[in-house]
Amino acid sequence: MNTSTAQKENIMGTMPVGKLLMTISLPIMISMLIQSLYNVVDSYFVSKISENALSAVSLAFPMQSLIIAVATGTGVGVNALLSRKLGQHDQKAVNDAAENGIFLAILSSLVFILFGIFFARGFMAVQTDVAEIVDGGTIYLKICTICCPGIFMSITFARLLQSTGRTIYSMIGQIAGALTNIVLDPLLIFGIGFFPEMGIAGAAVATVAGQVLGACFDIILNHYKNKDIQLSLRRFRPNGAVIKEIYIVGIPAILNNSLMAIMTYGLNKILLAFSTSATAVLGVFFKLNSFIVMPVIGLNNGLIPIVAYNFGARKRERIISSIRLAMIWAVSYMALGLLLFQLFPRPILSPFIEIPSTMEMGVHALRRISPGFLAGGLGFVLCASFQALHKAYYSLIVQGLRQLVIILPVAYFLALAGDVNMVWWAFPIADYLSLFICIALYIKITRDRISRI
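The chain above was modelled as a monomer; its predicted structure follows.
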């Protein structure tokens, strides 16, 4: 066993589970919280342009979600494979996983670049015929898609750092990107100082500038600090077997995360039957909800390599303890979000919404959606454990049922009542129904895999 592997064994294989989960997850959770902050700041400044500008960004959001879904899903596949191979002390397999993951990220970004060039306007026009929304959304979406290599490289290299337990370094890249976006947003949107006034395009430029800078930090930190991965891109050749292993976990994760984009697109279509204000409220909710959900996703990103490593090392008790502790932390954090959305919806919404009727709709949305947070916290952790235990399609089943089979049909039928505020109940209904399915699958994977170690 080489020195770096032995050091990693001391961390991932022997450190007390509570301390390990905190050490690995906390930097990711902080970086995710900062990521959420700049998403919210983005919407805040766009809302000061007009409600139509906010609606344009909301309608472009499904495609942004799809980009992140592909990048993150591929990263999950690399993360799970790389961590498992570290647990098995297979250095060549670790390097192959990293190199092929970078290759897949580059190929994926090219697909979205082509979409931005040829299909961005069509994507917006099929959702609404309001010219201001279509024009603004097209500009915003083109910039975000054509410049998407920044987010692909940022997520990929951050995952490499996370896979080897160096999450503190991945946090640096996230913070650098987020702060860049936050600073540039008002400067480019409103033309402050010597910066040009770009409006909604400025929001997009600020976003991609942050992503590119974050990627630069992540690449540099991998090169100098991540000694467990030895990249050699000069002699790299795509490896079909490694790519297959990445996508065994990665494709279900991509599809899983892509369901968010499909669900958002479908909900936008349902809500547009009422008003464009309803889609603006949905967009604001998703950005605010990211404050609640993203840190839990960060917790899961720390949990996956821990469970995958100990699964590879055949350490059952550490797997079980890690998952249970993550559940407790996730539900506790989601409970805090529930209280905030129930008790203070108006102060939370006031930076984004000024029209009284839209504010009332937003208050109803936060109070009716948030009761599902507790079920969502448990579901997130269980789905992450499925990915780490090489059963990623379980997570796909759960999220597919939640976001397509349950939430969209329920939202559609609730909309038939003619009251837009009824639609929001579709979220908690879907959260609790999908949790029951998630628990059943976790019992099965415990019996089939964990208990046999």
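DSSP finds 17 helices and no strands in the chain.
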